[in-house]
Amino acid sequence: MPGVLELLPLEQVAFDGMVAMIRREFERFGYLPIATPTMELTEVLLGKTGGDTERQIYLVQSSGAADAGEDPDLALRFDLTVPLARYVAEHEHRLSFPFRRYQIQPVFRGERPQKGRYREFLQCDVDVIDRGELSIRYDAEIPAVINAVFDALGFGEFVIRINNRRLLTGLLRSLGIGAQVEALRELDKLDKRGDEAVVASLISSGVSTGSARALVEMVGGGVRTGDAAMSLLDEFRLDNDLLRQGVAETKEVLGLVGEWGVPASRFGLDLAIARGLDYYTGTVYETTLMSHPELGSICSGGRYDDLAGQYTKSKLPGVGISIGFSRLFWQLESAQLLPSAHNSVAVLVGLLDDDGLEESLRIAAELRRAGVNTQSTVVADKIGSQLKYADRNAIDLYVVAGPVERERNEVLLRNLRTKSQETVPRPHLVAAVKAVS
Amino acid sequence: MPGVLELLPLEQVAFDGMVAMIRREFERFGYLPIATPTMELTEVLLGKTGGDTERQIYLVQSSGAADAGEDPDLALRFDLTVPLARYVAEHEHRLSFPFRRYQIQPVFRGERPQKGRYREFLQCDVDVIDRGELSIRYDAEIPAVINAVFDALGFGEFVIRINNRRLLTGLLRSLGIGAQVEALRELDKLDKRGDEAVVASLISSGVSTGSARALVEMVGGGVRTGDAAMSLLDEFRLDNDLLRQGVAETKEVLGLVGEWGVPASRFGLDLAIARGLDYYTGTVYETTLMSHPELGSICSGGRYDDLAGQYTKSKLPGVGISIGFSRLFWQLESAQLLPSAHNSVAVLVGLLDDDGLEESLRIAAELRRAGVNTQSTVVADKIGSQLKYADRNAIDLYVVAGPVERERNEVLLRNLRTKSQETVPRPHLVAAVKAVS
Questions:
Q1: How many CB pairs under 8 A join A and B?
Q2: Residue A113 has what pLDDT?
Q3: Are strands B410-415 and B397-400 parallel, antiparallel or unpaired?
Q4: Which pLDDT score is estimated for A34?
Q5: For A8, which of B61, B91, B141 is closest by C-beta distance?
Q6: A 145-174: CB under 8 A from B
Q7: Domains assigned to chain B
Q8: Could you tell me which residues come within 8 angstroms of residue A400 by beta carbon, excluding any fewer than 6 positions away?
Q9: pLDDT by residue (tens digit) across A336-392?
Q10: Which residues in chain A are closer than 8 Å to B54, comparing Cβ atoms?
């Protein structure tokens, strides 16, 4: 079926291992898991958004209801934010705020499938939500989570680009640019289309030539880390409140991220990050791999003023990020950035003759009790075939007690990685395996 | 939304922890993960089954396609077996056989919601598939996996009930009972409805009074472990090939399960297990909790002759089991069999004054680097409120460096479980936390 990522088992081992790392880092920062139903009421999903998204949702109906001519009242979630909003509104009085939640579940988009665009993909989100007010200090926690995740995943050096929508909008106001949404959308394309193209687009959307050039010059130049970021912020002429507030917030966030343990080289200010079509109101984030900028942002998010305005009267501001992991996995695989296949099975216990079955099963049971992932062979075969099976499946260790070894109370232990083998006294087997696995 | 299990965060921590245990045990036996798309082509899902299931599937269609008047060509999977069949057929030449796979994903049933019956629930499956023939010895591996899983989950003692469809059908033949499907379906109700009701139903479906009574007497009596099982099997008059083969298979399986490390008290023969409506052909399994038989089978499965006959010419016999985990979790929670709520957060780092923010963040970062799940407080508040938050959220440890502690280079460490607290020299903090968490 096109438009979905279906993996072979060893690829799935790698995929699941990375998702487990992401989950572990989310938990390390105290985020709690939630899981919402795959289907939400159609009215919940359509309430939040309009236009494009409406055409992209998957409507669901039981075959019985379809036969009865009823209209579909369920649909598959297209992100994890709308379900979070519904969840927080529904369970508000049983949750503790500030509420740090993570959610790792597939989302669905009814778009035409194309390379790296999936109809179903796994999304990994964290958000902090509070009631009433959410301190700007949380905006500095989010880069620490991003840093921990991508440090653990080990795809190479990366940089977290931070900006602020208030700052950007204040800047547009300062330059007398009225068409703000269009301008933000154009800015988002700066790294792909280049300065001149964006200036031209801005002008054709009604911005004066001078303002267009000034804007592109001001926000261009990529990411600035450390003192360079602070000096850049000091250069602004703070001629409106929005710009003043945006600059102050950005300074506070940039000043605090380091205290969370993020190395200075891994975060900075990038005034061209706009996340134009999203509902962010303050801080925004994008993250790029230093050696693979062409992959675009591998983790994005930001601050929003009110999560669930249409479901509850409480004001619920939040800040969070999202990793579209299926796409990222596919990109990394295509760029050959993934480590080589590794099996979750550590040991294959072989079987050379039927008389050895009980001993073979006992060996495997002992290894499992010692915490070693062990696959049993239950049909006797030649050692060559069994080694070939282990090799083809990237299983590193092969253990067998043939008639000779059983006679001597020994076991043969072969390491397929180092292509070495040894004979081990039967009572030492578990220790010998644990020493090399 | 009715018919789905949506948990509060700490319930989700418990749920996810148990799923992680199941996954770990599956991997311990060398099963490899696969994940198939939530949606399959409707023709794939409807190909396999007919009747009841057809009315229970959820049809899916993008909102764009619905507007265009197209027919839905996608549907949500209703089990993990049909997707496994499609997966194995599709990737057959890139898989290694015997193929041990596990799969932990939600499945969907478009039925009217009722207590403990979900429209979406998490299913945890393992199967071994081979090409051509699959040795009966694998039928003895499956109880070992069940044993490891429920041993790890710790819901109390359990027994794995093993039977064989060939044996049962041979028995029906032996007694001259023709209406086999109906008879198997009735036998499945033996523990719920009792002997007399089942005898009456059998008679009304055309079985002679003598045969009905003989059958119920033969298969009744519950589970028999160890030698009692073997003696029972020796009593049968082997007057047809099916019965002969069924008895031989059952003896081989029962004789081998112990070698896999399963205690003798935890598995046995129960001739009343029929799994009447399923497609099993040989060994069948059910598992019940000793102290909660009213929960019914918490893990069921069996052997089938051909997994994917409609998708490939290869004959792919298999054996496996399935745990309907959402329902089990709900049952255990209702029966108050779940351990008390436990937070994945080990430490809450408090904040009493704004001047302490940097030190507080540094403490948290150190704890995280040491592998401790740590939640930061970023807005200063009274110690009482912060302790109340930790208590309400089942966080065991609270750490804070107020002005006095910072002056003395110390940290206050409070254990909310033991209601004790101590002052720890700042450099010893990580060791002190690790000693009690």
A1: 244
A2: 65
A3: antiparallel
A4: 98
A5: B91
A6: 148
A7: 1-155+298-338 (3.30.930.10), 156-296 (3.30.930.10), 347-436 (3.40.50.800)
A8: A349, A350, A351, A352, A360, A383, A386, A411, A412
A9: 888 887 899 999 999 999 999 999 999 999 999 999 999 999 999 999 999 999 999
A10: 63
Residue B410 has pLDDT above 90, yes or no: yes
d(CA B258, CA B144) in angstroms, rounded, equals: 8
Mean pLDDT of B395-408: 97
Q: Which single residue is written with the structure tokens 């990020």?
A: A321
Quick: pLDDT tens for B171-183.
999 999 987 888 8
Helix-, strand-, coil-residue percentages of chain B, each rounded to 5: 45, 20, 35
**Contact assessment for residue B423 and residue B412, using Cβ atoms and an 8 Å cutoff:** yes
| Cα–Cα distance for residue pair B386/B349, rounded to 1 Å | 9
DSSP lists the bridge partners of residue A123 as A105, A324
Contact B373, A27 (CB under 8 A): yes
Instruction: Determine the residue among A260, A357, A369 to mutate to test chain B binding: the one whose Cβ has the most chain B Cβ atoms within 10 Å.
Output: A260
Burial status of residue A165 (CB atoms within 10 A of its CB: 0-12, 13-18, 19 or more):
buried
Residue B257 near residue B155, CB atoms below 8 Å = no
Which pLDDT tens digit goes with each residue over B136-169? 999 999 999 999 999 999 999 999 999 999 999 9
10-residue stretch averages of pLDDT, chain A, 437 residues long: 89 96 98 97 75 72 83 92 95 96 96 76 97 97 98 96 96 88 85 90 91 92 94 93 97 96 97 85 96 92 91 93 95 86 94 97 97 97 97 96 97 96 97 94
Per CB-CB distance under 8 Å, the chain A contacts of B136 are: none
**Mind spelling out the 3-state secondary structure of A377-400?**
CCCCCCHHHHHHHHHHCCCCEEEE
CB atoms within 10 A of CB A417: 10
From chain B, the residues in CB contact with A16 under 8 A are 33, 35
Q: What angle (nearest 5°) sits at the alpha carbon of residue A82, between those of residues A104 and B109?
A: 70
Report the C-alpha gap between A59 and B371 in whole angstroms. Answer: 43
Whether the bond between A427 and the residue before it is cis, its omega within 30 degrees of 0, is: no
Q: Does B38 touch chain A (CB under 8 A)?
A: yes
Question: What is the distance between the alpha carbons of residues B180 and B204, in angstroms, rounded to a whole number?
Answer: 14
User: B283: helix, coil or strand?
Assistant: strand
Per the listing, tokens 């709520």 go with B341
- Mean pLDDT for chain B overall: 92
Q: What is the DSSP string of A139-179?
A: HHHHHHHHHHHHHHHT---EEEEEEEHHHHHHHHHHTT---
Sequence-separated (6 or more) residues with CB below 8 Å from residue B419: none
Q: Is the pTM of this model over 0.90?
A: yes
- Confidence band for B34, pLDDT divided at 50, 70 and 90: very high
Contact A208, A178 (CB under 8 A): no
Contact A6 B119 (CB under 8 A): no
Across the interface, whether the CB atoms of B64 and A56 are under 8 A apart is answered: yes
Distance from first CA to last CA of chain A, Å, rounded? 38
DSSP code of residue A413? E
Interface contact flag, B9 A55, Cβ < 8 Å: no
What is the separation of C-alpha A2 from the centre of its chain, rounded to a whole number of angstroms? 22
Contact status, residue B411 vs residue B423, Cβ threshold 8 Å: yes
**Read out DSSP for A33-93?**
E----SEEEHHHHHHH--THHHHHPEEEEEHHHHHTTPPP-EEE-SSSHHHHHHHHHHHGG
The tokens describing B345, both together, are 């957060």
Q: Which residues have a Cβ under 8 Å from the Cβ of B90 and sit 6 or more positions away?
A: B311
Spatial strand order of the sheet with A39-41 comes to A39-41, A74-76, A58-62, B58-62, B74-76, B39-41
Res A55: pLDDT: 58
